[in-house]
Write a structure and sequence with these properties.
single chain; alpha/beta; 11 helices; 290 residues; binds ligand C2E; binds magnesium ion; Diguanylate cyclase (GGDEF)-like protein
């Protein structure tokens, strides 16, 4: 895929691309063994209900603790792993780790839904529903506590095939969410025909909404449209209290973002649950911030 032309123009020689390709090639050889060497980690970012102001769920976000490069973010290896096919193993590993973590938390009395990101390429994997079913059974996790986040690009390539995979996941009782909504090209008309329960508004809209009326109107109408289609609407990228309060006033269901917490390790999430106002279920939106 390195020679493909496109908007990034790989076919044209350019030293910056060349060094990026070298970096990617050496990452690729490292990625092959990353799972076996236990270098992948799952971080969790809490998601808050905007009606109860308590944490309701967490999103699992993979990180690669590289022995010499430090923490490699998913944006640097997930798209790459999709091209090479390594994503299957990564997705399976993240699913298993998240489902195990659900069980550890349940034993401690922490009941949070877990959302896991599924790559576009995973939806072309006919085994995905069986993998998910097997893991849920093995760790006795109720299917409706698991949510799978898919992006619009995930079903653009072969919508009919992706739809069948989604229907099978839905039949298991797993929840499905459309991630990064608003950045792709699919219509809500199409999405509303999929067995999806949630719409996650892309963070670019949420980050921009307080300073731009058009963006703000997009967020407002997405919430309204989502609700009229019976979907739960989640805002990602909530970076400050003003945005949080604005989303409450718009009737958005859930919020996720740095204002409440960055993605953190499982242990740090437990600490956050003990110490933060959202973990304590005592937050009131218009009370003065601490
Ligand atoms: P995503 O699923 O849309 O995840 C949300 C991303 O937004 C995360 O980046 C998160 O750290 C970041 N974020 C959360 N709150 C804020 C905020 O308030 N402000 C800003 N600026 N950013 C915020 P992260 O962890 O780097 O992940 C990036 C993307 O990588 C994810 O986007 C997802 O598409 C992909 N990804 C992450 N983990 C996995 C995984 O296990 N499997 C797959 N297939 N993809 C993954
Ligand atoms: Mg996501
Ligand atoms: Mg997202
Ligand atoms: Mg995103």
């Amino acid at each position: 895929h390195l020679a493909k032309t496109g908007k990034t123009g790989y076919a044209v020689y350019d030293p910056q691309n060349a060094s990026r390709n070298e970096r990617r090639l050496s990452l690729l050889s490292d990625l092959r063994g990353a799972i076996d060497r236990s270098e992948l980690r799952v971080f969790y970012q809490p998601r808050i209900s905007l009606t109860s102001h308590a944490a309701a769920a967490v999103e699992a976000l993979v990180r690669w603790q590289h022995p010499t490069r430090g923490v490699v973010p998913p944006s640097e290896f997930v798209p790459f792993a999709e091209q090479t096919g390594h994503i299957r193993l990564i997705t399976r590993w993240v699913l298993e780790e998240s489902i195990k973590q659900f069980g550890r938390w349940r034993e401690k009395g922490i009941h949070l839904r877990i959302s896991v990101n599924i790559a576009a390429r995973d939806l072309m994997n006919r085994d995905l529903p069986e993998i998910v079913e097997g893991l849920l059974l093995r760790y006795a996790m109720p299917a409706d506590m698991l949510c799978l986040e898919i992006t619009e690009s995930g079903f653009m390539e072969d919508p009919a095939y992706a739809q069948r995979v989604l229907e099978r996941l839905h039949d298991l009782g797993v929840h499905l969410a459309i991630d990064d909504y608003g950045t792709g090209y699919s219509s809500l008309n199409y999405i509303s025909r999929l067995p999806v329960k949630e719409l996650k508004i892309d963070r670019s809209f949420v980050i921009g909404m307080m300073n731009d009326t058009t963006t703000s109107m997009i967020v407002r109408s997405t919430i309204e449209l989502g609700h009229s289609l019976g979907l739960k609407v989640v805002a990602e990228g909530v970076e400050d209290e003003a945005s949080y309060n604005h989303l409450v006033s718009l009737g958005c269901d859930h919020a996720q973002g740095y204002f409440m917490s960055r993605p953190v390790s499982a242990a740090d999430l437990e600490q956050w649950l003990r110490n933060s106002r959202w973990g304590q279920n005592s937050y009131e939106p218009n009370r003065t911030a601490r």
